[in-house]
Amino acid sequence: MKGKRYAMLAMALVMLFAGALAGCGGKENTVKIGEVTRSVFYAPQYVALEKGFFEEEGLKVELQTTAGGDKTMTALLSGAIDVALVGAETSIYVYQQGAEDPVINFAQLTQTDGTFLVSREAAPGFDWNDLKGSVFLGQRKGGMPQMAGEFTLKKHGIDPHSDLELIQNIEFANIAAAFASGTGQYVQLFEPQASIFEREGKGHVIASFGTESGRLPYTVYMTKQSYIAQNKELVQKFANAIQKAQTWVQEHSPEETAKTIAPYFKDTDQEILASSVKRYLEQGSYAESPRLEEAAWNNLLDVMESAGELKQRVELGELADNSFAESAGK
Predict the structure, then answer these.
(1) d(CA 112, CA 264)
(2) Hey, what's the signal peptide range on this chain (predicted)?
């Protein structure tokens, strides 16, 4: 009887140990992503999720919206998320603070600014000088939308802090509502909000900051250097899934992409989704490869320097690891 009890106990321990191993294995293949906002601008990410590209690589992805660059980076540094989808400038800010465990960019998702200049009134024959003396509803200081916006204005001979009234004290999530309620003559908006305002007659898209500011590693997947060191195979699989999704978006129509990402934008009309995707495709906002390009990185440094947010220039190799993107491309 005693031998039987021991045998049963041993079997129970084996099963418990096996279950623990299985649970650990599942956890090891789980990646928690924090996206800085929910946006059509990130369409390839939602395609990767909906088309099962992460699953094909053996990964389970948990996506959460962390609402803002500061919150996203805090979540990454604290370990609340494994990977952040946020502007590459945040990795530079962390580096400038002397982080012992720097944040490394390993896969680019978008390669231009994603905002558009929206005018309250129709502006046929628009000229950038029309902004002088106007009230401009801008973005958060130090964030990529605002820096790219200021970079563009300066390129056209406009000082954003003296040639117009620049409003920057409104939270990102409330900017569209503020404009709709009457604040500002011009505003900087992402899609699909820009197209929604056009349809509703609340604004008119008159220029693209993405086109004007040039190629930038605008939104990038990044993680801590220590995480990469401990999870190289996982990071490679992640980059593979993103490459598959980027290729899929380039090879399919805006309507097909809109249909695929619709579950992430349940309150947005399909036609608006499709027109937003089309607009981003036409200006080359969706990166065709997760690889970060040196010229685009240097342009980012120029944009940050122009905004007074760069303490010193940082080489691409210091804060980016392109090995995963290059392997994914093969």
Answers:
(1) 22
(2) 1-22
Q: Rounded distance, CA 320 to CA 293, Å?
A: 10
Coil, helix or strand for 188? strand
Domain at 251, CATH number: 3.40.190.10
The contacts of residue 168 (CB under 8 Å, 6+ apart) are: 138, 139, 140, 141, 146
Rounded Cα gap, residues 66 and 78, in angstroms: 13
Q: Based on the fold, state whether residues 319 and 278 are members of the same structural domain.
A: yes
* CA distances in angstroms from 322 to 104, 105, 185, 264, listed in the order given: 10, 8, 42, 29
CA distance 283 to 68: 25
pLDDT at 329: 86
- Quick check: bond before 44 cis, omega within 30? no
- The one-letter code for the residue type at 204 is H
Task: Please give the distance of CA 90 from its chain centroid, rounded to a whole number.
Answer: 11
Half-sphere exposure of 223 (CA within 13 A, CB side): 25
> pTM of the predicted model, to two decimals?
0.88
- The Cα 219–Cα 157 span in angstroms is 27
Quick one: 282 and 143 in the same domain? no
In sequence order, the β-bridge partners of residue 204 are 119
CA atoms within 13 A on the CB side of 127: 4
Which of 152, 186, 213 marks a domain boundary? 213
Q: What is the pLDDT of residues 180-195, one digit of tens each?
A: 999 999 999 999 999 9
In a domain, residue 1? The reply is no
Residue 166 lies in a domain: yes
* 14 in a structural domain: no
Distance CA(67)–CA(281), nearest Å, equals 24
Burial status of residue 323 (CB atoms within 10 A of its CB: 0-12, 13-18, 19 or more): middle
Measured between its terminal Cα atoms, the distance across the chain in Å is 61
Domain identity same for 170 and 223: no
Report if residue 4 sits inside a domain: no
Which residue stretches of the chain have pLDDT < 70? 1-27
Number of compact structural domains in the chain: 2
- Residue-level pLDDT at 5: 40
